[in-house]
Design brief:
This protein is mainly alpha-helical and 142 residues long. It has one domain. The longest helix is centred in the middle third of the chain and has 46 residues. The radius of gyration is 27 Å and the shape is elongated. This is DUF2304 domain-containing protein. Keywords: Membrane, Transmembrane, Transmembrane helix. It comes from Effusibacillus dendaii. Pfam families: DUF2304 (PF10066).
């Protein structure tokens, strides 16, 4: 087995794994596009070494495989930046939700008892566990 055949098989396997993760809903579609593009890029570079050598000449790199390391490093930095932006956005949303939940709990504690019982009765017709949680009861496993 040559290294070219190995890299071709790896690229095809990588694309199949990404598609399988999307099918089983373990990877969101928005992230799968990025990984599919990486897989296709690997497939192109693996199947045609002329592209790699041409890119090395354009960047004035003497050793063509070093282009792969450079592209991999750039990709890693871009991915880390993207994930940092996503984590920052999620952190802001969690903070906002926590603040809203705190305000709702404070409002619920300040309501008169008859209003809470009336609300609990309405909730019990919707979902019994929700009413139990509103009364302060803990359910097993939570």
């Amino acid at each position: 087995m040559t290294v070219y055949l190995f890299s071709l098989l790896f690229s095809v396997g990588f694309i199949v794994v990404v598609l399988d993760l999307v099918r089983r809903q373990r990877l969101k579609e928005q992230y799968s596009l990025l990984w599919l593009l990486v897989g296709i890029g690997l497939l192109v570079v693996s199947s045609n070494t002329v592209v790699l050598e041409w890119t090395a000449r354009m960047l004035d790199i003497k050793y063509a495989p070093a282009v792969l390391f450079l592209l991999g490093l750039i990709f890693c930095f871009a991915l880390i930046l993207h994930l940092t932006v996503v984590i920052s956005r999620l952190s802001d949303r969690v903070l906002r939700l926590t603040q809203e939940l705190t305000v709702l709990k404070a409002e619920q504690e300040n309501q008169p008892q008859s209003t809470i019982q009336q609300t609990t009765t309405q909730q019990s017709t919707i979902h019994p566990e929700t009413a139990a949680h509103a009364n302060g009861e803990r359910t097993a496993g939570i």
